[in-house]
Design goal:
mainly alpha; 4-stranded mixed β-sheet; 11 helices; 4 strands; elongated
């Protein structure tokens, strides 16, 4: 378990560093070919931070409202209430608020900007269809997301994706309006300038796709990390592995889920083909189960 946790943390840090370098390189190219110069990078960062600020501080309320979740009453499912309380103590974090989604599809997610403002939300289908050990594995996974500050990391990644999207859009507009080529010509750049313009054009088209793929890779590593951390809390990897199998094999659609919230659930609630799996924020269930069983 410790080996899995250490490996996933290293991979997460490596992906984040590569993402930052990628954004910096894109900003440098943008500064070379546009009239904004290096000020464009600062402007893009400020805009991305502005639209992320609101979602970071109010994401829990927004997601709970979209999901039609309601607070858990202690008398409804006392075993769930006590499981969350006990596992939070084992994880060393404050007990999060617990919410319920009245839906037969088994699933769960965690939200909140830090452990003191965390929320764990489960569906009634998860409570009915999973046994006690499997439910504890799911709760431990979600508490691991909270303890590992995955929501904070996700917000920072969203900022970087937003910066890439803005810079790419501005570069495309520069090419369309002729600003990029004109600026390079005024500099009298020659062959080197032409190469930078070509690189800029390719980046303007491909950078948003690359940024999304890196975001997905980071998200998938954090899922593996939450699986390993959750197994460490319960000391029973099989419980989470069995829960993942049951949730993934369930055919009941989760009506409360949509494209905006799918990444938060322990298992992707939206069914789809190969393209949807390629751009999924979750690694394949088979890989997650294999990693858990290897522990």
């Amino acid at each position: 378990m410790y080996d899995q946790i250490a490996a996933n943390k290293r991979n997460s840090v490596l992906l984040c560093v590569l993402f930052i370098l990628f954004v910096a390189f894109l900003g440098w190219v943008f500064g070379q070919i546009s009239a904004f110069g290096n000020a464009g990078i600062l402007l893009a960062v400020l805009i991305a931070l502005a639209w992320t600020f609101g979602s970071y501080f109010y994401s829990d309320r927004i997601v709970l409202a979209i999901s039609r979740a309601r607070p858990l009453e202690k008398h409804e499912y006392p075993h769930l209430f006590h499981a969350v309380e006990g596992l939070a103590i084992a994880a060393g974090i404050p007990k999060p608020r617990v919410y319920i989604i009245d839906d037969d599809a088994p699933n769960a997610f965690a939200t909140g900007r830090n452990p003191r403002h965390a929320v764990v939300c489960v569906t009634t289908g998860l409570i009915r269809k999973l046994n006690r050990l499997e439910i504890e594995g799911v709760i431990a996974h979600e508490l691991s997301h909270v303890k590992n500050y995955d929501i904070l990391l996700g917000s920072l990644v969203v900022v970087m994706v937003g910066v890439v999207a803005l810079l790419s859009d501005w570069m495309l507009r520069s090419f369309i309006w002729g600003g990029a080529g004109g600026r390079r010509n005024r500099r009298g750049g020659g062959q080197g300038a032409a190469i930078i313009v070509i690189i800029g054009l390719l980046l303007a088209v491909l950078a948003p796709i690359a940024a999304q793929l890196v975001r997905l890779a980071i998200s998938r590593r954090r899922e593996f990390l939450a699986d390993a951390s959750g197994a460490l809390i319960t000391r029973y990897p099989k419980g989470l592995a069995d829960a993942l199998r049951k949730i993934a094999s369930d055919t009941e659609p989760l009506r409360a889920a949509n494209k905006a919230t799918e990444h938060m659930y322990i298992v992707n609630p939206l069914k789809g083909g190969a393209i949807n799996r390629l751009f999924s924020t979750h690694p394949p269930i088979e890989e997650r189960v294999r990693a858990l069983e290897a522990m």
